[in-house]
Amino acid sequence: MECAQNLNELKPIRINKLLSEAGICSRKQADRLVEQGAVQVNGETAFLGMKIHYSDSVRVHGRPVERKFEPVYLLYHKPGGITCTHDLSVAGNIVEAVDYPGRVFAVGRLDKASEGLMLLTNDGEIVNRILRAENAHQKEYVVTVDKPITAEFVQAMQNGVPILDTITRPCEVSRLSDKTFRIVLVQGLNRQIRRMCKALGYRVNRLQRQRIMHLLLDDLPLGRWRFLSQDEYSILQTQLAESSSLAMAE
């Protein structure tokens, strides 16, 4: 293992991948930092697509990048009123709400009014792989609306609803009570469930995400976080490897 790691360190790596592996941000966000001139390599401003070695000196906004880090994976029960931003100037931002003693960032978002399960990590590679649209990872929600749910509403939600100049993908929807339903999505359009309901004449009163892939909210207290278990982490790695392989084959 030690020899393999040393050999890998001799190979050049793209600057965005290195920043992602270091837990600074995702590759897409790294590209933005490079475009803004915020990244320096050996004292020179980096450029998009630049390949560097692990031995090179890398700084972001003048701060050195520490490339050896312990990966962290947290499950967080987000309350309503918390904004999924890492901008500390925004009141009720997720960084201060989670209050983890290290840099972690959210995999995906929940809008301010919504609550439920979120995954946070310092592992940029995991973020990229989970958010790839072609991997179609499931996210499950329980939603309460303002009036009785009809069979027509359920069918329309399942088949796809026109929002944001597109039609949502087919999804699983089941009625739980007079005004509450469960929905499983494999995409993440902006405020998707709220927009779908509004297009069908309903208003969302409460929205809670209960599952991301195999990761469950269960009895995690509101506003609290916990580390992933070893089993949860192992399954996550397996699922991501399988879905990435499938996407490459297609």
What labels describe this entry?
3 domains, 30% helix, Alpha-Beta Plaits, nine-stranded mixed sheet, alpha+beta, disordered N terminus, 26% strand, 250 residues, four-stranded antiparallel sheet, 8 helices, Structural Genomics Hypothetical 15.5 Kd Protein In mrcA-pckA Intergenic Region, Chain A, disordered C terminus
Q: Describe it for me?
A:
This protein has helices spanning 2-10, 15-21, 27-35, 94-98, 124-131, 151-159, 192-199, 230-249; strands at 13-14, 39-41, 44-45, 51-52, 58-60, 63-64, 73-78, 105-106, 115-121, 139-145, 162-163, 166-167, 172-175, 180-185, 204-212, 215-216, 225-227. α2 packs across α3 (27-35). The longest helix has 20 residues, at 230-249. It is an alpha+beta fold. The strands form 4 sheets. Strands 7, 8, 9, 10, 13, 14, 15, 16 and 17 form a 9-stranded mixed sheet that branches. Strands 3-2-5-6 form a 4-stranded antiparallel sheet, with no helix packed on it. Strands 1-4 form a two-stranded antiparallel ribbon. The protein is 30% helix and 26% strand. The protein has 3 domains: 2-64, RNA-binding S4 domain (Structural Genomics Hypothetical 15.5 Kd Protein In mrcA-pckA Intergenic Region, Chain A); 73-131 and 218-229 and 238-249, Alpha-Beta Plaits (2-Layer Sandwich); 138-212, Alpha-L RNA-binding motif (Alpha-Beta Plaits), CATH 3.30.70.
